[in-house]
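Practice record 12: protein with adenosine-5'-triphosphate.
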Amino acid sequence: MAALWEDIFSNKEVLEEIAPIAVDKALLMGVLIRTKDNPNSSDVVNFTPFTLLPSPVPKALFEQAKSVQEDFNLLVDRISQNPSFLEQVLSSTIKVDDFIERLFKIHKHVQDEGLAQSVFLGINRSDYMFDFSEDGTTSLKQIEINTIAASFGGLSSRTPAVHQHVLKTLGKTEEASKILPNNPSHGIARGIAKAWELYGSEKAVVMFLVETTQRNIFDHRYIENELWDRNIRVIRRRLRDVLERGSLNADKALIVDGYEVAVAYFRTGYMPQDYEDKDWEARLLMERSKAVKCPDVATQLVGTKKVQQELSRPLTLEKFLLDRREATARIRETFAGLYTLDIGEEGDKTVEIAIANPDQFVLKPQREGGGNNIYGEEIKEVLEKVKDSIERTSFILMDKIRPRPLKNCLLKAGGQIQISECISELGMFGVYVRQGKQVVMNEGVGHLLRTKATEHEDGGVAAGVAVLDNPYLV
Ligand SMILES: Nc1ncnc2c1ncn2[C@@H]1O[C@H](COP(=O)(O)OP(=O)(O)OP(=O)(O)O)[C@@H](O)[C@H]1O
Ligand SMILES: [Mg+2]
């Protein structure tokens, strides 16, 4: 496997000839991102960083990830409908994590008031790495499932054509034909359109909730434009805009700038920095409305690392998928070891094993957006500090996944053409729609492969660490 594309990677002349061709193709295909310096202008744009060549991915593991996606969709959706489970699982976390507490309070508020929302839309991305064990076998291990603002469904729809072109240019026509077609933005838009239709008002709009800094706007635009193609109006607003100009009518319809919002699709709101104090009022307003939130606050909470850890306990999955024994097995198969840091004997044991072998684990707080996890010696430092206080319950511990590094050339604007040792992470996009109790759509809608140099433990494409890639099934 390590030898794939070796002829190219060992030939500097070919690399230098092919890299600009690849970059031009990426630009032509619309694999775009705004610049760091001008994140709110499209006057000058960059290509989104990507690998020169597709990375090998074991076919069986790719198929496994694909085949478990509908199970995960169902699981997330069912947990989101179980407030007592969420309350119990997050009870320790909310005491020490202000962000999760604020989300939880909103969740509680709308539960007590009674949900006005009757149509539910989930757009998630389950992320995996390929764990390479000492006996030479490779297995699929879930990193986590993202239930809010899962990105790159748009851009990853455009990268297959880039790698196909690169391979053809290199005379590898047959290999080019093996690049998988991929179009998550189409499936995501289909889900949004379905939710919009079920909301049942032709004049109502889809509102993208966006950050003030909009560097990754092109990724959104692919989905937006698919909606416009279906004659569905899309508006883009910040939480602030909703706060200042949004209201509920007597029917609990969400009205923003005179538009009735059928679907509020969050591409922000997943980390504390996304909210200025007042913005929380906007979130509450939206949650209280009958608009379809993607995700609603309950589903966002399902995506916490704490819930992930709890699901790995014996018999928890069964609680939600009693009628789906095979799904339970398929899901469990992808779980890495996850350990609680709650106060008590079990948590004490976790502290002990983590401090003894910090290199075998990742310590994770309840955060999204990359760059928050703790590795190696720092795990020891942090745990030594918090181990005797309730603070430790803001984290969970996870087995560290160890993929086998493979060579690739990471192309970044202004970067050098060089070969790096890399590891990849596979994401599977899932979309589901539920009306009342009835699931009316449940699909896997495509994939994302991101690759980064091994010197980085953490960080995604937005952070400038990982780059877009395509799986080359082997
Ligand atoms: N168990 C693990 N073993 C090895 N690497 C890991 C593990 N968990 C996370 N990572 C690395 O850290 C990155 C971020 O982890 P994770 O997805 O849990 O955090 P996040 O902040 O939610 O990120 P994202 O913005 O991608 O949702 C992953 O993309 C992966 O590279
Ligand atoms: Mg995440």
